[in-house]
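hey can u run this one w/ glutamine bound, need the structure tokens asap thx
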Amino acid sequence: MIHSSLKALSAALASRQISSVELSTLFLDRIDRLNPEINAFVTVDREKTLAMARAADARIAAGNAGPLTGIPIAQKDIFCAEGWLTTCGSRMLSNFVSPYDATVIRKMHAEAGMVSLGKTNMDEFAMGSSNETSYFGSVKNPWDRSRVPGGSSGGSAAAIAARMAPAATGTDTGGSIRQPAGLCNLTGLKPTYGVVSRYGMIAFASSLDQGGPMAGSAEDCALLLNTMVGFDERDSTSLDRPAEDYARDLDKPLAGLRIGLPKEFFGEGCDAKVMAAVQSAIDEYRKLGATIVDVSLPNSHLSVPAYYVIAPAEASSNLSRFDGVRYGYRAPEYGNLDDMYAKTRAQGFGGEVKRRILIGTYVLSHGYYDAYYLQAQRIRRLIANDFVEAFKTCDVILGPTSPSTAFKLGEKSADPVQMYLSDIYTIAVNLAGLPGMSLPCGFVDGLPVGMQLIGNYFDEARLLNVAHRYQQVCDWHLRRPDGID
Ligand code: GLN
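ok here u go:
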């Protein structure tokens, strides 16, 4: 059961082969056993989980279950969940129990009847690519415990890779669903901006943040995405679109599909063995009937610099709400009000978050706004236009998710620029607001390699189709780390 797909779990629950309480207990027991070393979860609450599982079993018994009712899932600790500690990986929120549910949480639990296994570890305020900026300590990659799981959704990725959960949520501002999915042999999807509500998802860079599913396969991601999307009047950037079934095209043949390879993704900067794995996936797609075309994203080399102006600018504004007055951490000793703010923020935030706040306030300040922030916004438009051009000649874009496999814990933490470059292939997608996903495409020295698929706006169903067809012929995604029984 532990290794079953969501579809298989759904069938087992529907046929009463197992109850949600039994299934949830299997995962909770694994969390008890494996989490002390992996550190994927910040909060686990057996009683709460089992209460949700009992409610799901009652729903199944009453005959009003949906496809995911009773299925356990791990929630990234960036999503507010009523009555649950919601830390966002920060000391600043280390005592914050949310009084309300994020829309994603409400949809998955109250509406779909899924069961929460707990809240997963993450880089502080989702700023990072290795999960090492978390106040709650780093997370170990189940494929090699001396290595990072990626970030910022590193806890979610490690939880699934060690099968402490069959699926999880993530959020992706510059790659935080795709990169950890790639480094942990998972499938993860970052939807088109505006498709999944950001209400109750603690804001990092609001114009880039998007929640999405992480799981073992594209098919599982499609089922999860079906429960996550939808217009939300509480999110001013939520899009009102007709409902669709993201699983509808999974089996569609790929004959005639045009896959674009951006030359900028296949030049220097990527590990040669990672590139070889991506190349063999391209060969598989040829066999599946796809046509390979060359495309260009001429401004993609500007995506990391533009992102590290725009994301910190938005973060500096979003994080001003953490002042020690309304919620979260407050410095125990201080003089006047200004001193309270200063001490609270000095003690409550970690180094990377402070760096972003400093950069963000700098690029927004009078005199530098035009030179940095406005210029970055112009580059953002050029980057988005590059994709518009590319999608005139192809249906999806393919490339590596990350330039290397999982790196060692501590390897990049002293060098922020090296860390930032691990998102070199993912960030442009957020700047453009496009959907993107990562799926397993092989191994290098025992470590998973992810390939990235980028789609046009609202083309999630096609991305999932393209990923699913590959997963029918290449079963990298079914491999398990050693020592994970
Ligand atoms: N690694 C990137 C950053 O540090 C992206 C993080 C994310 O997508 N949340 O900002």
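The domain at 6-254+464-478 is CATH 3.90.1300.10 (Amidase signature (AS) enzymes). anyway lmk if its weird
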